[in-house]
Amino acid sequence: MITAKTTLGEIPGMTARLVERLNAFELRTAGDVVRHFPMRHERKLAERSILETQNEVADEQAVIRIRGTVATVRVRRGRATMVEATLEDDSSSARLVWFNAGWMRDKIHPGDTGVAEGRAKVRNGFLELGNPRWIPDRVPGETMAQRAELPSVPSAPQNSSSDIARVNPPLLDVTHDQLRAIYPASEQLLSSEIESVVAKVLESVCATIEDPLPIEFRQERGLIALADAYRLYHQARDEDDVAAARKRLAFDELFLLQLGVMMRRAQLRSRTRALPLKLEPKINEHIRSRIPFVLTPEQDRVIGEIVADMGQPFAMNRLLQGDVGSGKTAVAVYSMLLAVAHGFQAALVAPTELLAEQHYAVLGAMLKGSQVRIAFITGSNTSAERRERVAGLATGKFDIAIGTHALLEGGVAFRNLAVAVIDEQHRFGVKQRAAIRQKGQGELPVVPHTLVMTATPIPRTLAITLYGDLDTSVLRGSPPGRTRIITRVVAPEKAPEVYSYLRTRLERGEQAYVVVPAVEESDLGLKDVANHLRYLQDGPWKGLKLAGLHGAMARDERDATMNAFRAGTVQALVATIVIEVGVDVSNASVMVVEHADRFGLAQLHQLRGRVGRGSTQSLCVFLGQSTTEDGKQRLEAIGNTDDGFVIAEIDLRIRGPGEVFGSRQSGLPPFQIANLATDGELLRVAREDAHAWIEKDPELSAPGVAALKHKLWITYGKALGLGDVG
Ligand code: ADP
Ligand code: MG
Question: Which residue's alpha carbon is at the smallest distance from atom 21 of ligand 1?
Fold first, then answer.
């Protein structure tokens, strides 16, 4: 009998050669094959020739589908780019036209074969499709995405695995399918070969699948049985099958993660005691007297939310979201000083040394002349410095710790840490949040209140997925006295003109950042700090005071450079993206980004946020011209909007949620089926369900959910730190 665990070699009728190729594709067991989902489904229409289709369409508008070989591709530039292709088969040829869609140019090439699908009419004797869907036969060279676990599969067959009435097996007769599953495949292993292996194992494996969701629960939400979802997703008869299967599979992914997130939230609440830090009027006055400006009403509102949390006997877990430049630091400082005022310690963790140094400088200036002692801890401390500072944190000699990842390492312990702030959280993962929470245990049997901040506004679907266990505050608007930044996207050939114009601004006392992608010269043909600095110094910016800055510099050298820039003695910094996060110099009002098409959209937005911090009208010039569709979209987006939330949505669309979500930083495995850009409603349902479920059964200990819990542990246990809450 074939079960999910049966290795492919044990399956009758499989050649050793095929097994080998499947193995090379990371498909080893029958379960692996069943979990290898199609990437799309294609209609197996009885396709008619172009001529037949044309005769049928006549002068009616109709949705049609034709197959052929691309003969020509033309790109017409006008006010909007138009891409025109001709598709030929033995009978005739048809015109495919995409209006205002320059990006299609990279998607279709002479000689490609494939299917065009869309609205058609006959014009000038030709069949013409306007903005059709183009499905090339080439399977993109995809690699296997990480795969989530299949629900635990008991060895005994279960007949409850399906609740759809059907004729007896074979469940689906492949030869009569209307839809064909197209699998992630390669030149060595074709989609059709995977399809045939699926046909061999699907039914046996599905018969053993135990459904983790009770039948009433499923029916209320219109979800089909899990085994049926596998069956239908692989062997769909029509779009309804695909939709039903997809809904169930996507729901399970979303629901599982939300269960994990909710469980974690519940664990944090029930198991973590914290110090209630009350805000007395006197303390409030004191703190405000240290902050060198009047807080905005928005900052006050957010501080109100934080102070309310910190007054509770359980730990705050709050995410502060605010676009770059919105003034988050002051909010963080306020919460840290509240702890210090009560005689406890506070910590601030930043993702880069440069940013940590800046925070250290800013806080140092605010607290000048006070009793408060700050320890600065980063990877570039000398061992003597580190020893002295680490010891001082443990004994309470220091009230505040500011640093990088180095602060999260084992060995750093606090006497009585009451508040921890993580700046630019999107640069960290879930694990770092857990790490700082562990640091509270010194002489206190409690965990610190935690505030995590992020300047990457993320779409709501992503926020509740990644930060679902946190309460959220949003800081809107920006501090007074800011001017809007003018953004220009400029072709690289125009660089000399750009630099010569900017020279006039630098001569008037403005300061500039010039960002290049590389630290050192390489054969990638990218500008690097040293050479670009020389170019500017010998050429367009001759006689101006320039300096280079990058992450590989020694700390004192970097400090000296940054200080000189802050003081205005350096007029322009040629830097790598070390300056991307957090750097705050208000007199810098000009930014140039070289090879802008090389940077991610969120990155471009962060970079731009380095200017526009003072009252001078700022200018940001992105030099770049992209040859890829994504690159073009990024440049277009950055040129069109400066709203971080809009940028975030576009970024999600361009990169795909898998990339954003499955990124190394998030520390979570990506979804296979669910799509955060389009499954917002399903996510909402899954989140509510997970919430209710955890309320009733916080540890998933009810009978019958062992399989679900097991799956949760395997998939997210480690990433979410379930079960090891400090
Ligand atoms: P971000 O949210 O990107 O971390 P910052 O906290 O660095 O933003 O703040 C951006 C700039 O605005 C800093 O120079 C900061 O000193 C200034 N700022 C913040 N709040 C105010 C305020 N209430 N009034 C005036 N300036 C402020
Ligand atoms: Mg900041």
Answer: 479
Alpha carbon of 224 to ligand 1 centroid (Å): 51
Q: Is 325 in the pocket of ligand 1 (CB under 6 A)?
A: yes
Question: Peptide bond preceding 170: is omega within 30 degrees of 0, i.e. cis?
Answer: yes
457 CA to centre of ligand 1 in angstroms: 17
Query: For the segment 605-641, what is each residue's pLDDT rounded down to a tens digit?
Result: 989 989 988 888 999 999 998 888 888 999 999 999 9
- For residue 343, the surrounding DSSP H or E stretch is none
**Residue 177 pLDDT > 50:** no
Which residue puts its alpha carbon closest to atom 5 of ligand 1?
A: 327
Predicted local confidence at residue 644, as pLDDT: 84
Q: What is the pTM of this model?
A: 0.66
List the domain boundaries for the chain: 1-39+185-208, 46-176, 211-271, 281-475, 486-660
Q: What is the pLDDT of residues 50-98, one digit of tens each?
A: 888 888 776 566 667 888 999 999 988 888 889 999 999 888 999 999 9
Q: How far apart are CA 338 and CA 340, in angstroms?
A: 5
Nearest to 688 by CA among 221, 315, 272: 221
User: Is the shortest distance between the CB of 584 and ligand 1 below 6 Å?
Assistant: yes
Q: Is 329 in the pocket of ligand 1 (CB under 6 A)?
A: yes
Given this chain, do its domains 46-176 and 281-475 carry the same CATH topology? no
Contacts of 190 (CB under 8 A, 6+ apart): none
Residue 29 confidence (pLDDT) above 90: yes
Residue owning tokens 């510099």:
553
Report how far residue 275's alpha carbon sits from residue 32's, in angstroms, rounded to the nearest whole number.
49
Strand order in the sheet with 485-490: 485-490, 618-623, 588-593, 511-515, 572-575, 546-549
Q: Judge whether 272 and 726 are in contact, CB under 8 Å.
A: yes
Residue 22, pLDDT > 80, answer: yes
Cβ of 295 below 6 Å from ligand 1: yes
Please give the single-letter amino acid code of residue 716.
Y
Q: What are phi and psi of 160, to 5 degrees?
A: -85, 10
CATH topology for the 46-176 domain: OB fold (Dihydrolipoamide Acetyltransferase, E2P) (2.40.50)
User: To which CATH superfamily is domain 281-475 assigned?
Assistant: P-loop containing nucleotide triphosphate hydrolases (3.40.50.300)
Atom of ligand 1 nearest to the CA of 322: 2
Quote the strand ranges of 511-615, DSSP E.
Answer: 511-515, 546-549, 572-575, 588-593
Torsion sign over Cα 192, 194, 197, 202: negative
Q: What is the mean pLDDT of residues 161-187?
A: 53
Which tens digits make up the pLDDT trace of 423-438? Answer: 977 666 666 767 777 7
Cβ–ligand 1 contact at 260 (below 6 Å)? no
pLDDT in tens, 483-539: 789 999 999 999 999 999 999 999 999 999 999 998 888 777 889 999 999 999 999
How buried is 475 (Cβ within 10 angstroms: 0-12 exposed, 13-18 middle, 19+ buried)? buried
Ligand 1 pocket test: pick from 294, 329, 580, 605 the residue with the most ligand atoms within 8 Å of its Cβ. Answer: 329
Rounded distance from Cα 343 to ligand 1 centre (Å): 26
User: Considering the domain 486-660, what is its CATH architecture?
Assistant: 3-Layer(aba) Sandwich (3.40)
Residue 636 phi/psi, 5-degree rounding, is: -65, -45
pLDDT digits (tens, 9 = 90+) for 35-46: 999 988 876 554
What is the C-alpha to C-alpha distance for residues 63 and 132, in angstroms, rounded to an integer?
A: 9
Ligand 1 centroid vs 499 CA: distance in angstroms?
29
Task: State the number of CA atoms in the 13 A half-sphere of 257 facing the CB.
Answer: 30
Structure letter (DSSP) for residue 441: B
